Amino acid sequence: MKILPVITAFIGLVLLAGCKSTTVIDEYREIATSTLTSDESIVVLGRRHSSGYETEDDFISCVGKSLGQGQADISVIPEKDFVDSMYPYFETSTAPMDVKNLGKLAQIPAIAAKIDDFKLRYFVWIDGATERTDSSGSVSCAVGPGGGGCFGFAYWKDEANYEASIWDFKELALSGKINAETKGTSFMPAIIIPVPLLARVQENACKSLANQIKTFFSQQPG
Amino acid sequence: MTHRLLYPVALLLALAACEQSVSLKVDTEIPTPVISRMPVKMGVFYSDELRNYIFEENSEDRPNWKIESGSSHVALFDQIISSMFVETKEVAGTTADTTLDAVLSPSVAEMQFALPEETKTDFYEAWVKYNMELYNRDGSRIAGWSVTGYGKSSTEFMKSRDKGLNAAVNQALRDAGAKFALGFHRVADVGAWLEQFDASADDAD
Questions:
Q1: Structural class in CATH, domain B34-204
Q2: Tens digit of pLDDT for each residue in B190-204?
Q3: What is the ipTM of this complex?
Q4: Chain A partners of B30 at a C-beta cutoff of 8 Å?
Q5: Would you kindly state where each structural domain of chain B is located, as residue ranges?
Q6: Which residue does chain B place closest to A89, by CA atoms?
Q7: Contact indicator for B88, B104 with CB cutoff of 8 Å
Q8: For A97-128, how does the pLDDT look when each residue is reduced to its tens digit (9 = 90+)?
Q9: Spatial separation of the C-alpha atoms in residues B111 and B108, rounded to whole Å
Q10: Is A50 on the interface with B (CB under 8 A)?
Q11: Cβ contact (<8 Å) for A88 and B32?
């Protein structure tokens, strides 16, 4: 009976001390604010050319959804819809790596017409990934005729590092870059039942990056 | 009593999960390309080897691997080639009929796969290499070149090996299709052969 308060206190301490994440944002602006009229849209695309990592699909979709929410309701074209409709020009191996090459692409009438159909003004290219930098501990589970349970303690540290490059299609220029770095530690104490206390590093990096991208645009009526 | 019956079932399920064999029929989705059509009447010949292409391996690390991708290769080239030329037609051999300007014949030279546990990464990976042959209407060879494609798919929670490999192959085929479509006129012999059509188009203007 005496073990219950100890467990409760232990879990409470872990909750207080752990499962936090911190985000650092760095921003570089080529121009003070970028205008975006209400009938213009943006597209958020992931860079996936590196062999060692890949910007996650769900991160790109999270940033896109976050940009489309809240007061600054920005029209965001879903990544897959855009890449499919521009095939074969925005595949991993064929996508423009800089604004100059986007300019060359825009000279192709079919591409220019598609971009015009989308009313696309800005490209947001996101490059980065969330990685597990450390993990330790273990949780063992056992099942017997009388029932089952788990015991142990595990933790892991995640680090998310993403850079967003914002290209203005109208001006064919780089508007700016935003870097978001989020670190966090998750815990999983297990006494009969495992209780995961997650730091949600990727989710926090997504929200922070999306909020910062929103500040880039000053919205104007169309 | 019910619990005791569940143990062998759980053991069998655990053993099945450890099975290393792969039996997969690739399902590919290739979008319609946004490219200008060349003023060429192109035939396309798919050999039986391409139509029925199967990657098979039976080694200690990869016992009973069987990945069928023939229909996906045909679907890829059907989609790409029909968007590249003003007129396309499937033919039964590399000798074109008089209604066509040339015949394209793709073949799979090689396919490779890598699993996350093999590369110690978080990705399923796939490579495809095609040998492309272009024949004149008299059956003489105009050009031959290779097109490679690479695709990877990340390991995600509850993502099966089949699903991971299928996504990687799909990416590799998309990549190869994109490189073929954008690189066709850049192949030296093909570029030289295409000049006659540019000239005839200019004459028509």
A1: alpha beta
A2: 999 999 887 655 544
A3: 0.84
A4: 87
A5: 34-204
A6: B178
A7: no
A8: 999 999 999 999 999 999 999 999 999 999 99
A9: 7
A10: no
A11: no
